[in-house]
Amino acid sequence: MEPLSILIIATAAFFAGIINALAGGGSFLTLPALVFTGVPPVAANATGTAALLPGYLASAWAYRDLIKAPAGLSVLAVVVIGAVGGAAGALLLLATSDQAFRAIVPWLLLFATVLFAFGPRLHGFLARRAKRGHGLWGRVGVLAVCGYGGYFNGGMGIVMLAMFRLLGVHDLNVANGLKNLLSAVLTVIAVAIYMAGGAISWPELPPMALAAVLGGFAGARIGRRLPPNVLRNGIVLVGAITTVIFFVELFG
């Protein structure tokens, strides 16, 4: 690899590690960086996910004291259901062509950003249905979100945070702890499947993984000091900007 390419992908991975520790959306940076340096879209998504795995693990460890399951679920149930969803999403990615994946990406980003932006309003709807099976809602939500994460890592954290808000996790730092744990679990499963399917571009992996770990620790420290409103608005802004960029590329 050329030094410039290494610099581009390592820088993207570092800031992606920070973003993932704060709220998610790090693949908004790693995916375009890898595609820009010549990696095909599906391989870029798989490689970026693998590179960010150490960062997810580091962030989950940094938030370990804040991990509490949503009402109606246990932490073990969240982990097991998340692993199943991650595996299903990863298998689906391996069955998707580069052309189809390139066309789907902007819509997935749009979904993630809108869901998080309007999470507070949707929470009231879900809260009214809590007496009729909050636990079931939680299981379905975890399975669906982790399937999304296994398929498309970009915006995964945003969708997870939106889901936890809808399930009644009001403290954004607690939601971040859950998000980091679940991200680590499903990403371990997804990366194993990507490796078995030959979807990872190996030369780019080491510098990105190292940079993502450093970014993950830095982001976890920053996240505890940011006011919730600043963090929430930043999440929506990152998602909106990246969504516009991908739509411009798709229709431009």
Automatic annotation (TrEMBL):
InterPro entries, sorted: TM_pro_TauE-like, TSUP
Transmembrane regions: 42-63, 75-94, 100-119, 140-161, 181-200, 230-251
Top-level taxon in the UniProt lineage: Bacteria
Keyword GTP-binding attached: no
Pfam families: TauE
Keywords on record: Cell membrane, Membrane, Transmembrane, Transmembrane helix, Transport
Signal peptide start-end: none
Subcellular location: Cell membrane
Family: Belongs to the 4-toluene sulfonate uptake permease (TSUP) (TC 2.A.102) family.
Protein name: Probable membrane transporter protein
Source taxonomy: Bacteria, Pseudomonadati, Pseudomonadota, Gammaproteobacteria, Chromatiales
